[in-house]
Amino acid sequence: MDDNSRAVVGHRWGGAEDSVRLAAALRPALAARGVPEGVYVDNGSAFVDSALLRACARLGIKLIHSTSGRPQGRGKIERFFRTVREQFLVEVDTEKVTDLAMLNRLFTAWVEQVYHRRAHSETGQQPLERWLAGAPFLTPTPDALRGAFRWSATQRTFGARRGRGKCLGARRGCFCLP
């Protein structure tokens, strides 16, 4: 969500919160709406993951984490979540929504046709109208996005281990190669 306009710049419903699902929401959002100066996030595991830190660094985005235990710093997004519960989720017919893809299509339609076009109680303007009136964000090239969201692994060689070859450091231990 854009702090100034309250426009929803990216979203995705998923079964869990992890870095893969975050990238699946963030990458198309950046392609469509552009690269912001900063992103303000909570301290959930997906938001402290090195993949997000690397993607933001490669795109020149300042990653800002909210203070743990202080929900006041997240008031705007928490208020948006309440709006989603009160205005979108109450209208969703759970008998007809068969999968997450359908839920995402319905949510996108609600955001674009309802939420973005109603005057916001705090700003007095429609979020989309206020977003479009602001300075445009630079849109990253497809190559820049590919590079920012490319999965990578780092391996370090520690030397021979028991005469069995090289030992590569990994997060959860040491793997010996012949």
TrEMBL record:
<dbReference type="InterPro" id="IPR001584">
    <property type="entry name" value="Integrase_cat-core"/>
</dbReference>
<dbReference type="GO" id="GO:0003676">
    <property type="term" value="F:nucleic acid binding"/>
</dbReference>
<feature type="domain" description="Integrase catalytic">
    <location>
        <begin position="1"/>
        <end position="135"/>
    </location>
</feature>
<dbReference type="Pfam" id="PF00665">
    <property type="entry name" value="rve"/>
</dbReference>
<dbReference type="InterPro" id="IPR036397">
    <property type="entry name" value="RNaseH_sf"/>
</dbReference>
<dbReference type="GO" id="GO:0015074">
    <property type="term" value="P:DNA integration"/>
</dbReference>
<dbReference type="InterPro" id="IPR012337">
    <property type="entry name" value="RNaseH-like_sf"/>
</dbReference>
<protein>
    <submittedName>
        <fullName>DDE-type integrase/transposase/recombinase</fullName>
    </submittedName>
</protein>
